[in-house]
Amino acid sequence: MQTKCNPLAAGAIALVAGLAGHTVAQAQGQDSAAATTPPAVVITGSRIPRAGTEGPSAVTVITAADIEKQGYRNVFDALSNQTQNSGFTQGADYGNTFTPSANAISLRGLGPNHTLVLLNGRRMADFPTAYDGTVNFTNLANIPSSVVDRIEILSGGASAVYGSDAIAGVVNIILKKQFDGYDVNVKAGGTSRGGAGDKRVQFTGGQSFDKLNTLFSVELLERDPLWSADRDFMASKTGVAPTAVLSRKNVSTGKYVDLGDTCASIGDLFGGSTVNYASKTGSYCASPKVGPTYWTTQTKNSSQNVFGSANYELSLTTTLYAEALFGQNRSTQNTRGPTWTSRSLSDSYFWNQNTNAYEAWTRYISPEEMGGVERYNRSWDDQASSLSFGVKGAFTGTTWTYEAGYTASLYKSQDHRPRALANIDSFFLGPQLGVNADGVAIYAPDPARLTRRLTPAEFDSITGTSVSDDKSWTNTLSLTANGEVFNLPAGPVKVATVAELGKQGFSNVPDARINQGYFNVATGSDVTAGTRKRYALGAEASIPVIKSVDATLAGRYDRYNFAGRNDGKFTYNGGIEWRPAQQLLVRANYATSFRAPDMNYIYKARGTGYYSSTTDYYRCAKAGQAVADCEFANVSPGADYVQTGSKDLRSEKGRSTGLGFVWSPSADFDVSVDYWNIKISDLVTNLDADTLLRDEAACRLAGDLSSPTCADAISRIVRFPDNALNRPGEIKQILVNPINAASTSVDGIDVAAKYVLRLKDYGSIITKANYSKTLNKHSRQFAGDPLKDDLEDLTNYDWRDKLNASVTWNKGDWSNTLFFQRYGKAPNAAGDAFLTPTTLVNASVVYRLNARATLSVAVNNLFNQVKADNSAGWPYYPVGNYSPVGRQGWVELNYHFGG
Length: 899
Fold this sequence. Notes:
It comes from Duganella aquatilis. By secondary structure, this protein is mainly beta. The strands form six sheets. The chain has a 22-stranded antiparallel barrel. Strands 11, 12, 13, 14, 18, 19, 20 and 23 form an eight-stranded mixed sheet that branches. The protein is globular.
């Protein structure tokens, strides 16, 4: 379950440079009254230890027990389901993404790159491939849950404490520091609809040897894929033309060439679904099951994670520490099978010498021909590692403590992608016989080469696998200190200081054979790489103004060196806590923040690729077709794009404010209400292709070619001429690049409540609820554009509000939990209406078998709901907003021995 806490104001998680969660040693000489005060700990919000958990900013705490009882499978699952995580993200199970082996969150809907994610208060290396091909982010998929003590979420700007990235908030994943004995945990589960099973084994232990304290954990996970064909509702495309499997087209007439009995002879392909499809322009072989056959809605995953830590007490006031984390992960997925279009790298058609006509040939190779659908899987091998070590302690005879530490983090990813080889044209068409007077390639192909089925050996002769290597890293040296500086009538003024020196870098190295013409893909895949340095100095203070009022102040200066230029920012924040009564806290905070431009935005070389799917709104409108029924909608694969970076981008500047109260009349009841507001100027964002296509269509239809947005959108959608012989009027490519957008702002409310009902002999019932609602969100792309209402924008798939509620009954050896998640409205896939809110229910039972063993049973999506969305056709559910998996269940056994 989730507990709402309210820490000290400034921001952050963890004792600087990674001491989060540790109790700080206090100087000798404390009186007996102080001995009864709760121990001072660092809670996300400040580098200054304090006894209480309330402060001028709200912090949400997710404990290890919450992760188990609420049915969360891992750290990402726990974070993504929090109410503050309102932003739509393309995770590992989204489908054809740039980062199918990674998961990210988006606090307040401001994007994955605006939330700073820390591990024990330390920065981790970014995932080496940019999210959605644009922004850098932290992957949450490879953090072992077995050693997680708690997760703390601070919403709002915290740059004055943590520097760049902390605009939407800070997430600190705090690992256990001590462990006595050994735990073996085994967990396995599956789904009631079939597929998507998973299993996990964890071995965690710790032991103390005089002055040395150690902890380790090993975690092994296996997860089965879920294919679209495994779910009846999306196993076949309905209501639209089936996907072409084999076709010949006369480009001059626009008519398909009759294939005779070909379709009948290959009718057993794609599970026996291949048929002769008669269109307005002739017939071709087609199947409604092509897309579902090749599409995984849940990736296959195998990962192994190891964590170890050690603390050695040199003296009563000095401790050496070291922590190491290593994880390797293989992800496998499929988003489309092997296709071939004649001369796809040039004009997509040729001169057929045998028929004296311009023709375009296409072929979709089936699983039956190549030896199984998994033969065309794509896989990623990831390795993530981090090492931290340092010294911490106290200055004898003072209240001051210190820590000096070094952290190095490295993330490597290798992408194995199946591709057609450069010989595929000659395989189907035979040798090229030159070019005609118009410069079009001449062939004299045998039609039998197109129409007969392939053997696995033939398939192997025309396909191969490209291998790209991606890497990112970060190193940080930090020094922190905190203590009391002087006393005021209401108490001591406490100060924390920090100095940091860091460097980070990344590289994306595509397979060199791409530019050598080895594969049937366009050359021009360039290496993208870059580095930057960071320097920072900061301080914060906790000031007891009067007995009932405390204030906090923080300031920090960060300076970045990159791409031959410097960019420095000073940020500050302040907070106030007023307690008019012992049971009531009124709080307020104000913070400035910033974000240095993503390195991918800065250093991106000319990148080419294609979108997973594209909707050509202009052609749909010209044809008088609604998006849901349009032949040009959700076309997969989508349009080609060309993306470039910019070294002239400015840092983003942010401001956040908060106002709220906490009422806690007893230990069994508390409620908090907080209003928050975040504004960003000079927002760096890559131009969104779908938005560009919508804008282009609206502008062309309205005849507006000159307004700032219209002129820009039309210039970026490059089309074939309307009189082109092949593909007239179709999208040729979309040009995108990052810009400093004019502004964006978002505000809303968070509500949290807890009530404990004690029933004596019948145990206790604990109820908790968290609710977040976005009240307003506005943005403009260019200064001359009108302000855009993002909450009414039907291309903005963020949640407008979310509610989590849980009821737990604890009695004796039993703990039973019902967890409710209500998702508010979000747009449908067609972008023409909102989907209705939906509530999902998870249930868990934990039973303590004896003093050493517990048995747990958890069921997610208890009522087996899958949200339907037929508005834009296949796959008939809201991809990214809801899961198609249905009911999932797990059995978990934990045994403790030793200690």
